[in-house]
Amino acid sequence: MAAKQINPFLKSALEIGPILVFFAAYLLLKDRTFTLGGTEYQGFILVTAGFIPLMLACTAALWKLTGHLSPMQIVTSVLIVVFGGLSVWLNDDRFFKMKPTLIYLLFGTALGIGLLRGESYLRTVMEGVMPLKREGWMILTRRVTALFFGLALLNEVIWRTMSTESWVYFKTFGLTAAVFAFFMTQGKLFKRYGIEEAEGKAE
């Protein structure tokens, strides 16, 4: 079932808003320590605890308004609950920092399995946004698969070798910028393999 169209600003706010709130809250509380039930928690853990219900509420609102959630949105929500919950429960920020790695590994692996079967699973979820010929989808899928594995590796390097603050900046802006830059460099592929609207109607 196709997703209902909603105000693009509202859609962006529901998708990106929780991440920006997480970033702002982290900057506000990063140097503070809180004692709850006799246990000390760093600001990062408290911010993570607040991020989980906020992200779920925004995802639920998107589903309510559009009647649709992408596989990535569903998997991301599940992993946020699992790994964010583990970070809060065990008072260990490493679990939450691993989440992007697992997201990119899961989707990179899924796309890779599709490629081994001669299929583009990326086409299944994005064809309505970017109509391409089959060969174009296969090339783009191979590139996106490599991108996902590369981002998974990069996230591991960042959180294991740099400070929590550096990782938060990377998670908030770096990953988004990397994906945006990647698609901006695919212009030649879209131009070469794109399906014109008239051609699509003729078929």
TrEMBL record:
<keyword id="KW-0812">Transmembrane</keyword>
<feature type="transmembrane region" description="Helical">
    <location>
        <begin position="41"/>
        <end position="62"/>
    </location>
</feature>
<dbReference type="InterPro" id="IPR006008">
    <property type="entry name" value="YciB"/>
</dbReference>
<protein>
    <recommendedName>
        <fullName>Inner membrane-spanning protein YciB</fullName>
    </recommendedName>
</protein>
<dbReference type="GO" id="GO:0005886">
    <property type="term" value="C:plasma membrane"/>
</dbReference>
<keyword id="KW-1003">Cell membrane</keyword>
<keyword id="KW-1133">Transmembrane helix</keyword>
<dbReference type="Pfam" id="PF04279">
    <property type="entry name" value="IspA"/>
</dbReference>
<keyword id="KW-0997">Cell inner membrane</keyword>
<keyword id="KW-0472">Membrane</keyword>
<feature type="transmembrane region" description="Helical">
    <location>
        <begin position="74"/>
        <end position="90"/>
    </location>
</feature>
<feature type="transmembrane region" description="Helical">
    <location>
        <begin position="168"/>
        <end position="185"/>
    </location>
</feature>
<feature type="transmembrane region" description="Helical">
    <location>
        <begin position="143"/>
        <end position="162"/>
    </location>
</feature>
<feature type="transmembrane region" description="Helical">
    <location>
        <begin position="102"/>
        <end position="122"/>
    </location>
</feature>
<comment type="similarity">
    <text>Belongs to the YciB family.</text>
</comment>
<feature type="transmembrane region" description="Helical">
    <location>
        <begin position="12"/>
        <end position="29"/>
    </location>
</feature>
<comment type="function">
    <text>Plays a role in cell envelope biogenesis, maintenance of cell envelope integrity and membrane homeostasis.</text>
</comment>
